[in-house]
Amino acid sequence: MRRQQTNLIARWLITAVAALVIVPIFLVIGFIFYNGVGALSWEFLTQPPRQGMTQGGIAPAILGTIFLTLGTAIAAIPLGIGAAIYLAEYAGDNRLTRAIRLAIVNLAGIPSIVYGLFGLGMFVLFLDYGTSILAGSLTLGLMTLPVVISTAEEAILAVPREFRVVSLSLGATRWQTIRHQVLPHALPGIITGVILGLGRAAGETAPILFTVAAFYLPDLPRSIFDQTMALPYHLYVISTQVPGMPLSLQYGTALVLMLIVLSMTIVATIIRTAMRRRREW
Amino acid sequence: MNTILSITNLFYKHGDGTEALRNINLDIHANELFVLFGPSRSGKTTLLRLLNRLSDLVEDGRHQGNILFNQQNIFSATTDVTRLRRQISMVFAVPTPLPGTIYDNLVYGLKMAGKRDPALLDERVEKSLRQAALWDEVKDRLRSSAFALSGGQKQRLCLARSLALEPDVILLDNPTSGLDPISTATVEASLFELKKQYTIIMVPHSVQQAARVADRAAFLLEGELIEVGDQSRMFVSPLDQRTEDYVTGRFG
Q1: A13 is in which domain, residue-wise?
Q2: What is the rounded distance in angstroms from the CA atom of residue B246 to the CA atom of residue B21?
Q3: What chain B residue is nearest to A170 in terms of C-alpha separation?
Q4: I need a labelling partner for B92 at 20 to 30 A (CA). Which of A88, A124, A211, A247 fits?
């Protein structure tokens, strides 16, 4: 009888602990939503900040974050998917492969503020891109690379091996096989990984701190060599650097940032589900 | 007798060092249905996969010796492997359609070879489906998913997919393994038609199937070629005691 009871208690305890994981996410979303929803308005989303940022909207920061996310995508996708294809399809058990894997693990482990400093030294100063969307995108792209590579590699490896063998047996080359039988079927997984990686990049503050983010810049950037405002940095600024900020503006900004990241995650999930449903095997 | 494939002193070692084939010497004649039979792990599939260098996909395997296809050494550095695989085409034990329609499957190899003329593709699709005895069943749904076919239909689709390339040699690795007796009979019947145009090398499902379909047969045991001969001799009065024991079901 005792064993049975212990068994039952263990089961309930573990279930309860697991259920606790759901609580913080609802608390965070609920808290931000409750405090921030009042600030949301058409003006808030479409106007630049006014009166020392204590009034007006956050439009330049929203657009800046969108530009930076696109820039990150352009920087990270080709390199990331290329590396993933190499690792999944071509890599033999050799030094180059081991070096690449080691590099990815280490890239993933570097703190984001270190990326920021690296971006400052490398892109802003050494390559002389200045504090710019270009420098910020490259820095964020670098940071996103490990996520893109590992999710894309996983997606590529999940394509059944038989498709490759059959394709090669019908006289296709290695590249034709990858192009026609592997990548199309790995695409949902790759897209999901890319979007999740970009979602993380969109919310980062440290990497853009020294490389692109502007304290206050109501005008929109005109080229990739311009600075821009960005939501995470703007949030940091209005939360800590500006005296007399209305709380609702801070929470409103946080809410917008959260909704952008959240909607990217949801889009990723929808793409994955839809494409899985269409899968035939 | 026109020799199309000539195997001389062929050895093959797996990555772990085990010897899969030991000193195989064998000539395959054009337009015969040649059967490679023997118990499992005797090296039949390994030999089959060497013939069109699908063995290359296993990177740590090592071969020695020669295979001449129309007098050309297939292991030579100048061999165009993609062309070789179109000339010597493989049908696998497990029917494996590629994702896509029936039509997509049939024209895949041709498209990869750069053939895009729709008239040619259509013609090859119909011809290969007729040869594989599948045309009547699928002619109205060429644009539907290949995965919707039954097991037997899938296997005939895979056969047709190879035939669409108009190869010289067809390799069949136990093509009826998952099929019911009726589907098996359909596939076997189409083989008799096919050997008029193609050379067929087949690993059979059973000794009985080997005896039913073979023109000539080779008995393999633990990587060694024990005996080669005409169907009438191999399955009735084999020369080697081991062949006789296997054919009569004393082991295996």
Answers
A1: 2-31
A2: 19
A3: B109
A4: A88
